[in-house]
Write a structure and sequence with these properties.
CATH superfamily: TonB-dependent receptor, beta-barrel domain
Largest sheet: 22 strands, antiparallel, barrel
Number of strands: 35
Shape: globular
Number of domains: 1
CATH architecture: Beta Barrel
Number of helices: 4
CATH topology: Maltoporin, Chain A
Length: about 750
């Protein structure tokens, strides 16, 4: 079987990009499509497994004897069942194997692959046993289209399809969730420091408008971190990680099932001196969930997590300083550590967070094929943040959600309906003080900020034939941003009412091969971070950004080859970008652009380039090539000031790849590379660039699915000096502004994990 696509006119500009990188990328895609087609032709007996985008080095251990029910375990190498309908076209979900409300990794993969767009489930086995798993970069670096730039400590700069490129602090443009409970504040701000990747069983990634069920108020989509339950957790587990620059991490967990109840609890302590000066940090995190099966068809589950994170900030430096003195913090010339300047060391820049999050989710199976989910949450967050001023912000977020899923037949055709509502409200008591060499000085600003968000959504999957589903859906969002200036004149209120329709198709060519496409609208409401005091543009005048996105793609695989491919083009109105009208060109204050274009190619693949080198039989050894390639073309669209300039902040090409030898005994080893072959701009005027780089690493470890795993990993083994991340400006006029975050030098990490 072969496929031929005729792209709509809206997508054709993607293939006519003016730079040379895209034709090469498309040649790769043509080769991939041809390979996938031939594989499908050659397989008369369809497989029920889809290898994940990342290589997994272990098979989960069988459950302890006291467990009430054994969950479905993900097959080796991250394989997961394909989302295929049953005979007659009924989608094949079946009953939950453990928790009624929390799918296993395999079940979550079946569910997410019904989405007519780019999505992914990343199992914890893809990163937990072979890396220190400190930041979300460790967990998501092999997901194409997700660009994660390390900054300092556990802080990162994340963008999906160019979302939030102009946010120089915290996170905007991607909604983060823990077990479906928002991590972002009600106004949209997020912080990665609250996330410990080792606490989760898997991570769901929804790119762009494919996060409909979350009611996501974000252009880039949503990421959901899902904890284990007592049904799929080890009875006890402990791990120790150590590494360069004073890194130490100790974690422990426990889970089990007792009658109708189950539990999972985990805790982590971590400290590091940091690669750069003034970048030391320490954190303590804990999380747990407790479920109770009230009846065979009713389960309620309670969640709690708490974080105490202390982190110093070295700050951005000039390009010259980043490449010649990468360990240095931002220090103004002529000022010493005991001076009276305003640099990061003198003012002891920090970002310290204390958070307590509690939630409940209750799942009710109303009848076979019909499930109702109800939830509520409350989050108390305290941000203590001495920077240019001493920020003392207290957040109180609360909300709830309801979702119903009905799988039935209409006129003999399989049909799946999902409908729900989300409420997410919150207040911020925002106080800023003079930063008196790291101490609180006089109060300078005090605002009371209130955010209210209500979204309702509806999505229907209708199987016109057993293997083809037509999808139509819509989301309505009502949002309010209300600021009361308690000591000044900056009060104001704005309201937003936004509709976001979507239409798509999913075709299960075989049980192991899908083709999908969609056309969608999405929206993102500005946060209060886009409305700082004394800015040139009052926050009441900032509009929501809107995007119309066209997307096609395919995913699938065999035992020795798998792929995940998406092509998209988004036409964006009023994108929230960094602008300034003052005399300091590097100062960023957010406003709305006119029209911009985000388009690209996202390709992940894994290939057993060789097998049976030293071990033959039903479980041979393999030399596995694993790669994630992203092509980005983000630009202004005939802008009055910037013409068709590239949007700053993201490389056009990004490649992450590893060549891993895997022996059936559990031994694995191999090199890896991270490659940015072209420099990218850091200002809208396109006058200042980063530099291209390639950094090499390697890992060796042992993981046979048993009680003990161990790894040793080297990063940036050539000790390359490079720029890992940047802040964004409007027009630096070619000058070398302090916008650059140097990458970490050579580092070695090792760890051991014990479970039983």
């Amino acid at each position: 079987m072969s496929l031929s696509f005729r792209l709509p006119g809206s997508l054709r500009p993607l293939f006519a990009a003016p730079r040379a990188g895209l034709p090469a990328a498309l040649s790769m895609l043509a080769l991939l499509a041809a390979t996938g087609s031939s594989l499908a032709q050659g397989s008369q007996e369809p497989t029920t497994e889809l290898p994940a985008v990342t290589v997994v080095t272990s098979t989960p251990k069988a459950k302890a004897p006291q467990k009430k029910a054994a969950p479905v375990s993900p097959p080796s190498q991250g394989a997961s069942p394909a989302a295929a309908p049953e005979a007659g076209g009924r989608p094949a979900l079946g009953s939950r194997s453990g928790s009624l409300g929390v799918p296993t990794t395999a079940e979550a993969t079946v569910e997410i692959e019904r989405t007519p767009g780019a999505v992914e489930v990343v199992p914890d086995t893809a990163y937990k046993t072979s890396t220190p798993a400190v930041t979300i970069k460790d967990a998501l670096e092999y997901v194409p289209g997700v660009f994660v730039q390390p900054k300092w400590g556990e802080d990162t700069r994340l963008s999906i399809r160019g979302s939030g490129l102009s946010r120089n602090f915290h996170l905007r443009g991607v909604q983060l969730y823990m077990d479906g409970i928002p991590i972002n504040t009600a106004d949209g701000y997020g912080d990665f420091q609250e996330i410990d990747p080792t606490a989760y069983r898997y991570i769901e990634v929804f790119k762009g408008a494919n996060a409909l069920r979350f009611g996501a108020n974000a252009l880039g989509g949503a990421i959901n971190f899902v904890m284990p339950t007592g049904y799929d957790a080890d009875l006890f587990g402990a791990r120790l990680d150590v590494g360069s620059f004073g890194f130490h991490k100790l974690s422990a967990s426990s889970g089990g099932v007792y009658g109708a109840a189950d539990y999972f609890i985990t805790g982590t302590w971590q400290e590091q001196d940091g690669f750069r000066d003034h970048s030391d940090g320490e954190s303590v995190r804990g999380a747990m969930n407790v479920g109770y099966r009230l009846t065979e068809d009713v389960e309620t589950r309670f969640y709690i997590n708490a974080n105490d994170v202390q982190q110093r900030i070295p700050g951005s430096v000039t390009k010259h300083e980043a490449l010649t003195n990468p360990k240095g913090a931002f220090v103004l010339p002529g000022l010493g550590p005991t001076g009276t300047g305003n640099d990061n060391v003198d003012r002891d820049y920090q970002r310290n967070i204390e958070t307590v999050r509690i939630a409940n989710k209750t799942t009710i199976r109303l009848m076979p094929g019909t499930t109702l989910e109800l939830g509520a949450f409350n989050v108390d967050r305290h941000l203590m943040h001495p920077i240019f001023q001493w920020l003392d912000y207290r957040y109180d977020d609360y909300g709830g959600f309801a979702r119903i899923t009905d799988e039935s037949r209409i006129g003999g055709f399989a049909n799946r309906l999902i409908a729900g509502v989300n409420i997410h409200n919150g207040t911020i008591d925002a106080r800023q003080y003079v930063n008196d060499l790291g101490d609180k000085g006089a109060l300078t600003t005090h605002t009371g900020d209130t955010s209210r968000n209500f979204s309702a959504y509806l999505e229907n999957h209708f199987y016109v034939v057993p293997d083809v589903a037509l999808i139509a859906g819509t989301q309505f969002l009502h949002a309010t941003r209300d600021r009361i200036d308690l000591i000044g004149t900056g009060s104001g209120k704005t309201d937003f009412d936004l509709w976001s329709p979507k239409a798509g198709i999913v075709w299960d060519v075989t049980p192991a091969w899908q083709v999908f496409g969609n056309v969608s609208r999405s929206a993102e409401v500005p946060s209060f971070g886009e409305s700082v005091m004394a800015q040139a543009i009052p926050f009441t005048e900032i509009k929501a950004q809107r995007a119309t996105t066209y997307e096609i793609g395919t995913r699938g695989g065999t035992e020795d080859f798998r792929w995940d491919l998406a092509l998209y083009r988004a036409n964006i109105d009023h994108e929230l970008l960094c602008f300034t009208t003052n005399a300091t060109p590097s100062t960023c204050q957010v406003g709305n652009a006119d029209e911009t274009i985000h388009q690209g190619v996202e390709l992940g693949f894994g290939l057993a380039v060789m097998r049976s080198l030293l071990a033959e039989g039903p479980n041979p050894d393999k030399l596995w090539l694993n790669a994630a390639y992203t092509f980005n073309d983000f630009r202004y669209d005939n802008d009055v000031l910037w013409g068709d300039n590239e949007l700053p902040g993201a490389p056009r090409h990004f490649l992450r790849a590893e060549l891993l030898y895997k022996h059936p005994s559990g031994l694995y080893l191999g090199p890896n590379v991270e490659w940015v072959p072209e420099a990218y701009y850091v200002d809208s005027a396109n006058t200042l660039e980063t530099e291209a780089y390639a950094i090499w690493g390697a890992k060796i470890g042992f993981d046979n699915g048993g009680p003990i795993t161990a790894y040793l990993e080297g990063r940036n083994l050539s000790d390359e000096t490079y720029i890992a991340s940047t802040s964004i400006a409007t027009n630096v006029q070619g000058s070398d502004a302090a916008l650059f975050e140097p990458g970490t030098g050579r580092a070695i990490y090792g760890g051991v994990q014990v479970k039983w």
